[in-house]
């Protein structure tokens, strides 16, 4: 088990180094960063001085080594536009994005699993048909359109929810949270639903399909022949067996929730990493783009690792194949 | 005679399909007494498994019991509300399925599955149920049960898993066990062990057993009585020695003729020509008549009803007291 985790961790580090190469090469393809930083009237000598102070004269491999070394310590250089360390900018924005992503994922998981289980067990109920229709909308409508439509309905027409921003936030150490204030919670509702809707429909359809599959298996039939209660069969035996693929998808999707947050954050002017990234793209702020890329990959890789470990907890068969492999 | 544990009368099971209703079971009747093993044989599709499933109330839609009645120790169970039928399942009727590899939930320890079943039906504490589970595992012949109880199904071999399944089927001391092809998925060497285990448990606990199989050898070894099914009906039923040594129904004769013997055999095994009709195309009269070497006019018109003939009961016009000439 430990060896398995270690091996997976080493693989994860390999992936991160590969991402580092891509992030680093962005600096070299997006033009001369010095030109981005200085005005038109800066002299050649001053440019050279800046170049030297930033270490841009060194060989590529040295620069890359330095970049990776710094990245490992979460140092991603200085933003071209803000003249502030990128790490500080990201850290400042990260709580907003993570809170949004986590709430969106919890919303997606809870409602997706509930709707999926319900529509698998009551195949002909009218509520199932409504769920199916909703899931079709969630899958086919683009995120930004849903966000804009919700703003139009709940902010402009009804005036119930704020159309942008994060509301009042509370500082807890370096973390800022909007979960503790009413305006923060109200501001979170629409972005979280917008962001989670696609995941919710995905999970609902997955749970439904898996559940229908599991309900046909011999062990469910045998559980019925043993006279277990319907609740024990549905929620003890069937649901747990549908959980393995659901955990995979939900875990992998958490990464894309953070990635998709770019769109949601733009629509709702949510002060998170995604919005920072979009602004960085508009201003060719390579350090921020590279750092964002690294951060998102780190989150992806970490989640994958956690999901792999979670499998073995849910499914005992994997536990033994994992230990037998060593 | 005391009341039989299981009494099935004129059972009819139908499946609604796009091309009309198919009758899978058409008027099946039999009894099983306390401690008795009834073997049910027949080809695939003869309705053996469906009969077993309808007794335990697990016919899935679009199938349904269309007629007849099923009584368990006198209590009518075919029309019980679902929740009451659930209490009968596992508690008063235990069931063993064909494939032990897929009968157990792979994500739960076998002990948890047994304890769960025990506690569903008997008012026992967690510890008491666990002790009982260990005793059960020991009784079905699992070595070191106090260790194995915390194993997962995939850590057991096929034969051992079938023993666990049997332990699950008997954990609430049912009056009746339905074993649906319990040995078909197992190695031949393990089959005999499982069969003798089922037989021993039935004897020790006075449990009635309905043993569904297509293996005549298993029947001959285990059963007290045997029912031969064909196309959703019982062709012949009677004590196992009589039916094996002296089958009456032409189909039963054919089946017994198809059993290989060890004693100096130079002749080919007997085959029954043709195959069983599909449910959508059951012939008029006796459903066996197109394959029967003895069929005469009446067989093509008139459906034979089961009539007693000695200790056996047979549904065939050859044994009808009404002379064939007058009927035709």
TrEMBL record, chain A:
Keywords attached to this entry: Cell membrane, Membrane, Transmembrane, Transmembrane helix, Transport
Cellular compartment(s): Cell membrane
Residues annotated as domain ABC transmembrane type-1: 94-311
Its membrane topology: Multi-pass membrane protein
Entry's Gene Ontology cellular component terms: plasma membrane
A single BP term in Gene Ontology: transmembrane transport
Regions that span the bilayer: 12-30, 100-121, 133-154, 174-198, 244-268, 288-314
Gene3D superfamilies (UniProt xref): MetI-like (1.10.3720.10)
Protein's UniProt keywords contain Transmembrane helix: yes
Pfam families the UniProt entry points to: BPD_transp_1, BPD_transp_1_N
Domain of life: Bacteria
Protein name: ABC transporter permease
PROSITE patterns: ABC_TM1
Main localization, broad class: membrane
UniProt similarity note: Belongs to the binding-protein-dependent transport system permease family.
TrEMBL record, chain B:
Membrane topology: Peripheral membrane protein
PROSITE patterns noted in UniProt: ABC_TRANSPORTER_1, ABC_TRANSPORTER_2
Keyword Magnesium in annotation: no
First-listed, main subcellular location of the protein, grouped into a coarse class: membrane
Signal sequence annotation: none
Entry GO CC: plasma membrane
SMART domains to which the protein is assigned, alphabetical: AAA
A molecular function GO annotation: ATP hydrolysis activity
Keywords, comma-separated and alphabetical: ATP-binding, Cell membrane, Membrane, Nucleotide-binding, Transport
Any one of the GO BP annotations: transmembrane transport
Localization, UniProt: Cell inner membrane
The ABC transporter domain, residue ranges: 8-256
Recorded family membership: Belongs to the ABC transporter superfamily.
Function text: Involved in beta-(1-->2)glucan export. Transmembrane domains (TMD) form a pore in the inner membrane and the ATP-binding domain (NBD) is responsible for energy generation.
Protein name: Methionine ABC transporter ATP-binding protein
């Amino acid at each position: 088990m430990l060896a398995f985790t270690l091996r997976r961790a080493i693989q994860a580090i390999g992936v991160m180094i590969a991402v580092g190469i891509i992030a680093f090469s962005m600096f070299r393809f997006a033009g001369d960063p010095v030109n981005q930083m200085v005005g038109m009237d800066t002299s050649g000598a001053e440019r050279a001085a800046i170049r030297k102070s930033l270490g841009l004269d060194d060989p590529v491999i040295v620069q890359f080594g330095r970049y990776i070394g710094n990245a490992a310590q979460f140092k991603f250089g200085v933003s071209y536009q803000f003249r502030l360390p990128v790490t500080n900018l990201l850290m400042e924005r990260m709580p907003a994005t993570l809170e949004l992503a986590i709430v969106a994922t919890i919303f997606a998981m809870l409602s997706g699993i509930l709707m999926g289980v319900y529509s698998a067990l009551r195949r002909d109920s009218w509520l199932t048909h409504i769920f199916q229709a909703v899931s079709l909308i969630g899958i086919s409508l683009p995120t930004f359109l849903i966000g804009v439509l919700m703003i139009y309905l709940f902010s402009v027409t009804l005036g119930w929810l704020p159309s942008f921003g994060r509301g009042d936030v509370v500082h807890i150490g370096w973390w800022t949270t909007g979960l503790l204030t009413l305006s923060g919670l109200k501001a979170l509702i629409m972005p979280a639903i917008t962001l989670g809707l696609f995941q919710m429909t995905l999970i609902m359809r997955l749970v439904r399909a898996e559940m229908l599959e599991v309900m046909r298996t011999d062990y469910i039939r045998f559980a019925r022949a043993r006279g277990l209660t319907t609740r024990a069969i549905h929620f003890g035996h069937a649901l747990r067996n549908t959980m393995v693929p659901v955990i995979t998808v939900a875990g992998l999707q958490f990464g894309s929730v953070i990635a998709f947050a770019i769109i949601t954050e733009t629509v709702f002017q949510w002060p998170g990493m995604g919005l920072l990234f979009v602004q960085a793209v508009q201003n060719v702020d390579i350090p921020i783009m590279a750092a964002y890329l690294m951060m998102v990959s780190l989150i992806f890789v970490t989640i994958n690792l956690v999901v792999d470990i979670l499998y073995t907890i849910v499914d005992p068969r994997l536990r033994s194949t994992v230990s037998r492999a060593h | 005679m005391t009341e039989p544990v299981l009494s099935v009368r004129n059972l009819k099971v139908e499946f609604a399909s796009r091309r009309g209703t198919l009758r899978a079971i058409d008027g099946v009747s039999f009894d099983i007494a306390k401690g008795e093993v009834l073997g049910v044989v027949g080809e695939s599709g003869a309705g053996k498994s469906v009969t077993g499933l309808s007794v335990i109330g697990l016919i899935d839609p679009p199938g349904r019991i269309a007629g007849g009645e099923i009584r368990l120790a006198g209590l009518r169970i075919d029309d019980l509300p679902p929740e009451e039928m659930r209490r009968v399942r596992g508690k008063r009727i235990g069931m063993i399925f064909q494939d032990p590899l897929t009968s157990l939930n792979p994500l739960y320890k076998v002990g948890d599955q047994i304890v769960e079943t025990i506690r569903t039906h008997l008012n026992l504490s967690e510890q008491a149920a666990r002790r009982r589970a260990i005793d059960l595992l020991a009784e079905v012949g699992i070595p070191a049960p106090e260790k194995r109880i915390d194993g997962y199904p995939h850590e057991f071999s096929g034969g051992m898993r079938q023993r666990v399944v049997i332990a699950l089927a008997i954990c609430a001391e049912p009056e009746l066990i339905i074993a649906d092809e319990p040995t078909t998925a197992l190695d031949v060497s393990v089959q005999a062990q499982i069969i003798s285990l089922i037989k021993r448990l039935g004897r020790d606990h006075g449990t009635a057993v309905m043993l569904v199989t297509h293996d005549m050898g298993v029947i001959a070894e285990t059963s007290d009585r045997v029912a031969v099914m064909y196309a959703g009906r019982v062709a012949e039923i009677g004590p196992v020695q009589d039916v094996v040594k002296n089958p009456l129904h032409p189909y039963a004769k054919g089946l017994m003729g198809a059993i290989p013997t060890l004693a100096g055999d130079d002749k080919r095994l007997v085959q029954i020509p043709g195959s069983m009709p599909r449910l959508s195309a059951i012939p008029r009269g006796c459903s066996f008549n197109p394959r029967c070497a003895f069929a005469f006019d009446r067989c093509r018109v008139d459906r034979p009803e089961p009539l007693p003939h000695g200790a056996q009961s047979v549904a065939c016009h050859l044994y009808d007291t009404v002379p064939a000439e007058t009927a035709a």
